């Protein structure tokens, strides 16, 4: 992959999420009461609902989201590092409600694609003309032997934040750990939500330990032999944390095959048992249960979609965005969820008008914090292709390597700007 564009260019791409290039022609008066239903109030769903309401005011927009406040996965790792508090990453839906979006805090229990109806846990049934489905992921409890819902109270995953309780649990465990303890990470094979996320988490936990428990160690056991921004992360670990972080790839028996919560042990493929003081299991994942239960997922566990419209290949009036869909080679990221949600809405409106989806290009900028005032990034641009999504050749890249303290400081600032911009774009 080529070197990244200048930071100015990357920041320009980031700010492009606010002013989407998608054309937004008004629906005709006859179609003005079309019903757009959005399930999921995260990066994909909230972005879709707000974009639909502001760009197509004739639409009736309803958002179904069980939680009254949304805790973001992005920046959750900074909570573990001690540089953010839970309130800093928690967002309410008041801005969406003020924009005229009907918000129902309930669970979607089932989708009848033929009748275009969604059944809610509370008993209400909603009809739609177009459905934007962005429910995120489900943890595949049991896919890693020994790891179930009870085990998550010992070895938190903190990968589906919900109300933030899992992330807060992991933070409390780190605070209670004695200096000189071992923090273990179990990292899954691809695909999973936020490919650089585990390595940013390692970095932020290392930053906390360096300040408060400097004799401690981090053991990162990985089911892969390579990961996103690997050289940049490892450069940062060495420069900032010395030998605190040990990363063990799959080829060196890094794949965790079983966990034992009672003994607080990670056991690898070839039988080595690692005793831990704190363990973070990032388990295998799939599309959320509403996708699986409604027959919208392929055998891979992820939804297959049209790369121009995000219409489900199983139900064309359902557009699936965010982490639940198979967008490879696009990563499962908040940025991708945000801008593909807008394309899905524009495509849904075009279909209601009897038109083709608009031309599409999808941007991703993923920032990661490695330490205080130390940020890195990866940029990618993608388009629909004949067989799915394709990365535009020579369109992106990663931060340059080397001793570049000002570069790292500026990227940390750009990361903060990105987070403020995208959450404002989602929630108003």
TrEMBL record:
The keyword Flavoprotein applies. GO terms for molecular function: flavin adenine dinucleotide binding; oxidoreductase activity. Residues 35-149 form the FAD/NAD(P)-binding domain. SUPFAM superfamilies: FAD/NAD(P)-binding domain, FAD/NAD-linked reductases, dimerisation (C-terminal) domain. Keywords: FAD, Flavoprotein, Signal. Pfam families: FCSD-flav_bind, FCSD_central, Pyr_redox_2. Residues 358-427 form the Flavocytochrome c sulphide dehydrogenase flavin-binding domain. Transmembrane segments: none annotated. Residues 1-24 form the signal peptide. It comes from the Bacteria. This is NAD(P)/FAD-dependent oxidoreductase. Residues 167-283 form the Sulfide dehydrogenase [flavocytochrome c] flavoprotein chain central domain.
């Amino acid at each position: 992959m080529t070197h990244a564009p200048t930071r100015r260019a990357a920041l320009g791409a980031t700010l492009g999420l606010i002013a989407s290039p998608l054309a937004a022609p008004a629906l005709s008066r006859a179609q003005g009461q079309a019903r757009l239903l959005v399930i999921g109030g995260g990066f994909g769903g909230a972005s879709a609902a707000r974009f639909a309401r502001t760009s197509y005011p004739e639409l009736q927009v309803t958002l179904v989201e069980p939680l009254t406040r949304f805790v973001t996965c992005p920046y959750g790792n900074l909570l573990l590092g001690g540089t953010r508090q839970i309130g800093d990453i928690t967002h309410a839906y008041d801005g969406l409600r003020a924009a005229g979006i009907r918000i129902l805090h309930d669970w979607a229990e089932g989708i009848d694609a033929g009748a275009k109806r969604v059944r809610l846990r509370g008993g209400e049934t909603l009809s739609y003309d177009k459905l934007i489905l962005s429910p995120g992921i489900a943890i595949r409890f049991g896919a890693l032997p020994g790891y179930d819902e009870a085990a998550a109270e010992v070895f938190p995953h903190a990968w589906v934040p919900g109300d933030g309780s899992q992330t807060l649990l992991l933070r409390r465990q780190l605070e209670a750990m004695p200096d000189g303890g071992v923090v273990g990470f179990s990292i899954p094979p691809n695909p999973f939500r936020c490919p650089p996320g585990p390595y940013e988490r390692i970095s932020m936990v290392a930053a906390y330990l360096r300040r408060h428990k400097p004799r401690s160690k981090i053991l990162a056991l990985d089911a892969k032999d390579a990961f996103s921004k690997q050289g940049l992360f490892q450069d940062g670990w060495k420069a900032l944390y010395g030998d605190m972080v040990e990363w063990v790839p799959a080829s060196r028996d890094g794949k965790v095959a079983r966990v034992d919560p009672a003994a607080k042990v990670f056991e690898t493929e070839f039988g080595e048992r690692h005793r831990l003081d704190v363990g973070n299991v990032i388990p295998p994942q799939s599309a959320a249960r509403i996708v699986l239960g409604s027959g919208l997922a392929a055998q891979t566990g992820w939804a297959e979609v049209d790369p121009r419209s995000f219409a489900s290949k199983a139900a064309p009036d359902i557009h699936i965005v965010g982490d639940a869909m198979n967008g490879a080679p696009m990563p499962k990221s908040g940025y991708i969820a945000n801008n593909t949600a807008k394309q899905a809405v524009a495509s849904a409106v075009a279909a209601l008008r009897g038109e083709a989806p608009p031309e599409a290009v999808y941007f991703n900028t993923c920032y990661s914090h490695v330490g205080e005032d130390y940020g890195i990034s990866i940029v990618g641009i993608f388009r629909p292709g004949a067989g799915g999504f394709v990365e535009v050749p020579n369109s992106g890249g990663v931060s340059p390597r080397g001793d570049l303290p000002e570069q790292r400081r500026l990227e940390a600032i750009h990361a903060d700007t990105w987070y403020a911009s995208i959450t404002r774009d989602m929630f108003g």
